[in-house]
């Protein structure tokens, strides 16, 4: 294991001698007798039928182990590579094949038990015990909201295990519980397969399984997207799975000494590791689609009376075209990132779910105007769209590709009474009668994240509803900025709700359709009189969006509790005027639609980050949840390192909830907590 405490360079590697549970050697149930001639015939049969193609490996290899030849480590090419084939490989293949030879030489030199652990121990004795001169000074600026999961439970004191040269025939599942491991050495053993659980070790940077009897790699190997070095030297591999294509960080793939099919060997001889991985990634066939997401019925509304008003809301961060780059999503095939492919899946999901209200984030103006607006109009939707403010200073050819938020609603069901575009940064510094602090200007004003608000009226019932659609700043280091942005949204919603409650009745409810909309022949509902509301919080409210905040955040606390104390830890020592001095509050009784099921398992799924960031909030005094779109099939995810992929066009999940409109309940006055009563009040 590597020891991170104390002086830099004093590293210790776990050598496995005191942890025999990791490798189960000399156990009778793993010892099966095999005949060499049978194995050779089987390999020849596979090679004959594979031709020059790389098989898409999915199945766990069955059977027992191959015999462990006593001369395995001293005979580099004992795995079926003929001398003629080796002669061909030694022909001028350039630097790439030379690298293969070098990696093989290094792997074969490491045959002694615990070679890596012994080497690290020797090196650490020679290192200076002086203070660290430099740290990791490289800062990679993210283009878009790609937070990274921070390990829970503190930093591990060791991150590597060396089980090399132990004659292991099988591995205990205990080993794969150490998902913090960065280096794992299983070289020079008698393993004939890697367990599917290898996919759990997502932090691995280096994996060495050279000098074993591996006959195939599990598809789960593609889950190890942090791998930079993978040594497979001297095994019995005839094919390599396409899932290796997910390993976009891999810079060293050692395969010499394997009886790989001819086409694969030629590619490896003439391609760098990066090029070969890209070849696998972009040639990867689409896997079987997952089982559909379940609909979670919380209330049976199928036999509801005609007086029962219900509606459905759909929220989706669709991953803007210009953010779907190879640098951000290197694990995804190029055709998966292609916008022409993704936009059709997104549209198809909207039309399949058939919601009454659709809230999209990261929708750019060009695709709003040219694709989603006309396509959804054909299905009876009308829309409202607003862009981030950076479009105001961008060249015209670039401005149309800047994203924003788009809200659509079924025009035969709703009338649009009002629409608002909220730039959180500008609203924060323009708060009435308040002087903007330096922190407000330097941290909040500079972000151009936005939200939209629409006021809808149901044509048939006359009930009104506020629909907010928002996208908040992504960076986890800026919790204060996200909190202030949400505070500004709630302040604006409070003001608008009071104005909307006083809005006179709507007299003209005649339907208006886009010129290219198709009439599906459904009769228009009989218009009902507009309902009256005594105060703003009496109006039904839903807030959809990508909040970039987890369930344990101050943002979540503020929205569901209605208040947040002054000097909250997420605000730190920064000065945000009255927000810092008096706390933050809002008058609405909000709940997350998914809180009734404990939220989804995740709404954002990438190799480096999996968590809930997206929500549909609703006013519980006037609405109740009757149904929800459920989780993604977890079995499917065992071989999917991250979204987007063939079946999920964004790194976010679509959310959908069905609501029943009920008579508004009287509200209790909510005041900000000025003391320590806040759930997360900072000290």
From TrEMBL:
Leader peptide range in chain numbering: none
Descriptive protein name: CCR4-Not complex 3'-5'-exoribonuclease subunit Ccr4
GO CC terms of this entry: cytoplasm; nucleus
Function: Acts as a catalytic component of the CCR4-NOT core complex, which in the nucleus seems to be a general transcription factor, and in the cytoplasm the major mRNA deadenylase involved in mRNA turnover. Ccr4 has 3'-5' RNase activity with a strong preference for polyadenylated substrates and also low exonuclease activity towards single-stranded DNA.
Gene Ontology terms, MF aspect: metal ion binding; poly(A)-specific ribonuclease activity; RNA binding
PANTHER family, per the entry: CARBON CATABOLITE REPRESSOR PROTEIN 4 (PTHR12121), POLY(A)-SPECIFIC RIBONUCLEASE (PTHR12121:SF100)
Chain segments carrying region Disordered: 1-20, 31-155
Domain Endonuclease/exonuclease/phosphatase: 315-425, 534-652
SUPFAM superfamilies: DNase I-like, L domain-like
Enzyme nomenclature, EC number: 3.1.13.4
Coiled coil: none
Keywords of this entry: Cytoplasm, Exonuclease, Hydrolase, Leucine-rich repeat, Magnesium, Metal-binding, Nuclease, Nucleus, Repeat, RNA-binding, Transcription, Transcription regulation
Catalytic activity: Exonucleolytic cleavage of poly(A) to 5'-AMP
CDD domains reported in the protein's UniProt record: Deadenylase_CCR4
């Amino acid at each position: 294991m590597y020891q991170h405490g104390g002086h830099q360079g004093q590293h210790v590697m776990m050598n496995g001698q005191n942890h025999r549970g990791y490798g189960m050697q000399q156990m009778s149930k793993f010892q099966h007798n095999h005949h060499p001639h049978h194995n050779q015939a089987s390999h020849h049969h596979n090679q004959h039928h594979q031709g020059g193609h790389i098989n898409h490996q999915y199945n766990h290899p069955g059977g027992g182990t191959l015999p462990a030849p006593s001369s395995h480590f001293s005979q580099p090419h004992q795995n079926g590579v003929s001398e003629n084939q080796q002669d061909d490989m030694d022909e001028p293949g350039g630097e790439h094949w030379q690298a293969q030879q070098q990696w093989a030489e290094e792997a074969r030199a490491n045959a002694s038990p615990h070679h890596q652990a012994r080497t690290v121990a020797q090196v650490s004795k020679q290192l200076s015990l002086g203070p660290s001169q430099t740290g990791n000074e490289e800062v990679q600026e993210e283009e878009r909201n790609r937070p990274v999961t921070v390990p829970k439970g503190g930093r591990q004191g060791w991150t590597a295990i060396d089980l090399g040269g132990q004659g292991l025939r099988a591995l205990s599942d205990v080993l794969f519980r150490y998902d913090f491991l960065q280096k794992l050495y299983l070289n020079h053993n008698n393993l004939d397969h890697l367990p599917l659980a290898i996919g759990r070790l997502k932090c691995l940077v280096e994996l060495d399984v050279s000098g074993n009897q591996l006959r195939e790699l599990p598809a789960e190997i593609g889950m190890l997207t942090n791998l930079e070095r993978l040594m497979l030297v001297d095994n019995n591999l005839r094919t390599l799975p396409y899932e290796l294509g997910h390993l976009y960080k891999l810079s060293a793939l050692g395969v010499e000494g394997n009886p790989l099919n001819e086409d694969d060997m030629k590619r490896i001889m003439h391609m760098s590791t990066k090029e070969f991985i890209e070849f696998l990634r972009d040639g990867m066939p689409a896997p079987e689609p997952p089982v559909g997401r379940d609909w979670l019925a919380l209330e049976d509304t199928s036999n509801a009376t005609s007086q029962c008003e219900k509606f459905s809301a759909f929220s989706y961060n669709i991953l803007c075209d210009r953010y779907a780059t190879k640098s951000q999503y290197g694990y995804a095939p190029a055709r998966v990132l292609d916008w022409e492919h993704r936009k059709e899946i997104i549209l198809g999901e909207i039309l399949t779910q058939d919601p009454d209200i659709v809230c999209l984030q990261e929708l750019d103006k060009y695709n709003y105007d040219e694709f989603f607006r006309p396509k959804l109009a054909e299905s009876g939707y009308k829309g409202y769209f607003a862009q981030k403010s950076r479009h105001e200073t961008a060249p015209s050819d670039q401005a149309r590709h800047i994203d924003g938020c788009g809200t659509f609603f079924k025009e035969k069901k709703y009338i649009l009474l009002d629409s608002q575009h909220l730039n959180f940064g500008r609203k924060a510094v323009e708060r009435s009668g308040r002087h903007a602090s330096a922190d407000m200007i330097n941290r909040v004003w500079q972000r151009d994240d936005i939200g939209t608000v629409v006021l809808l009226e149901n044509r048939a019932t006359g009930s009104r509803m506020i629909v907010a659609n928002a996208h908040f700043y992504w960076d986890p280091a800026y919790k204060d900025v996200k909190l202030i942005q949400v505070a500004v949204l709630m302040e604006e919603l409070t003001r608008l709700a009071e104005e909307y409650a006083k809005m006179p009745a709507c007299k003209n409810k005649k339907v208006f359709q886009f010129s290219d909309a198709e009439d599906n022949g459904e009769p228009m509902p009989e218009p009902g009189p507009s309902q009256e509301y005594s105060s703003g919080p009496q109006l039904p409210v839903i807030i959809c969006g990508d909040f970039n905040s987890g369930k344990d955040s101050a943002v979540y606390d503020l929205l569901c509790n209605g208040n947040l104390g002054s000097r909250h830890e997420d605000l730190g020592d920064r000065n945000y005027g009255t927000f810092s001095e008096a706390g933050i509050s809002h008058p609405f009784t909000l709940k997350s639609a998914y809180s009734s099921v404990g939220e989804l398992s995740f709404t954002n799924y990438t190799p480096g980050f999996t968590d809930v960031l997206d929500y549909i909030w609703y006013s519980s005094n006037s609405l109740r949840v009757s149904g929800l779109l459920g989780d993604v099939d977890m079995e499917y995810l065992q071989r999917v390192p991250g979204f987007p992929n063939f079946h999920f066009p964004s790194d976010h999940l679509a959310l959908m909830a069905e609501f029943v409109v009920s008579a508004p309940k009287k509200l209790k006055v909510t005041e900000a907590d000025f003391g320590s009563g806040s759930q997360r009040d900072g000290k």
